[in-house]
Amino acid sequence: MNKAIDFLRVIALFGIFLPSIVHSQEKPTITSYYNLFDQLIGKTNSGVFNGIVYVEQYKVINERHKFFSAPNFTNGSVVYDKQPYFNLLLKYDLFDDELLTNNLERIGSPIIQLDKEKITDFTIEDHRFINIDFNIKNNESLSGFFEVLLKNDSLTLYKRHEKKIIRKANKKIRYFEFKDNNSYYIHYNNTYNLLNKTKDFNAIFPNYKTQLKNVFGRYKSIRKEDADSYMISIIKELFIIMKSNNNSI
């Protein structure tokens, strides 16, 4: 049934909606037509809520939760089983690396853990994550969701969001806290590399050690307080340097 609905979404988009896009003065987006179709049939009847019922296993009593950004559901979008879905309530579990959703069309419906293998990418609060599987230079295999922090012609910077679990207890209860354990990776020359330390940069870009040393110095002040901005700034400047030197990038 859900496969049939998803097929109808595609047929409706290309057979009915796209001609109206071409002739419309307002040029509505493809996204708006997917949303319209889902409103007509109801998201419950589509394939996006296929998954298993999510059961929380860890009691948390403070702000040190295991979710991306916040422990509550946030508006987002997902490409699921090759179909795009918009205006969904999503929550990203960083400890188990799983994406959760909640169906408001059914009162009292359980939280659903989406089938990870069917997720191509998703967006929460303008943060885009893709589902990838790769090996880094030491042949360590990595897979799961990675945030795309920066992408240009030759360099893509990814962030792996992870949480460490800490077991806690007081006189009354046992509970858990979660601590950030993030890492960065870069895709360059068809390879993926861990990119957390200065020596990692130098190993990947040995011809630019001198220039990188100057770049590191310029952004040293923000390294601890805003690691994302620090990494993005370094990669942006590196890309400019490489282009200005007319090297193959």
List keywords for this structure.
alpha+beta; eleven-stranded antiparallel sheet; two-stranded antiparallel sheet; 13 strands; globular
Topology, pairings included?
Blueprint: H1 2-23, H2 30-41, E1 51-53, E2 74-80, E3 83-93, E4 98-101, E5 112-114, E6 119-124, E7 127-135, E8 141-151, E9 156-160, E10 163-169, E11 174-180, E12 183-188, E13 191-194, H3 198-204, H4 209-218, H5 227-244
Antiparallel strand pairs: 1-5, 2-3, 2-6, 3-4, 4-5, 6-7, 7-8, 8-9, 9-12, 10-11, 12-13
Describe this structure in words.
- This protein is α+β, with helices and mostly antiparallel strands and 249 residues long.
- The protein has two domains: 1-42; 53-196, no CATH class.
- 28% of the residues lie in helices and 33% in strands.
- It has helices at residues 2-23, 30-41, 198-204, 209-218, 227-244; strands at residues 51-53, 74-80, 83-93, 98-101, 112-114, 119-124, 127-135, 141-151, 156-160, 163-169, 174-180, 183-188, 191-194.
- The strands form two sheets. An eleven-stranded antiparallel sheet has the order 1-5-4-3-2-6-7-8-9-12-13. Strands 10-11 form a two-stranded antiparallel ribbon.
**What number is the mean pLDDT?**
84
List the strand order in the largest sheet.
1-5-4-3-2-6-7-8-9-12-13
Strand content: 25-35%
Helical percentage:
25-40%
Q: Please report the number of helical segments.
A: 5
Q: How many distinct beta strands?
A: 13
In N-to-C order, the SSE pattern is HHEEEEEEEEEEEEEHHH
The structural class is alpha+beta
Low-confidence stretches: 14-27
Distance between the termini: 48 Å
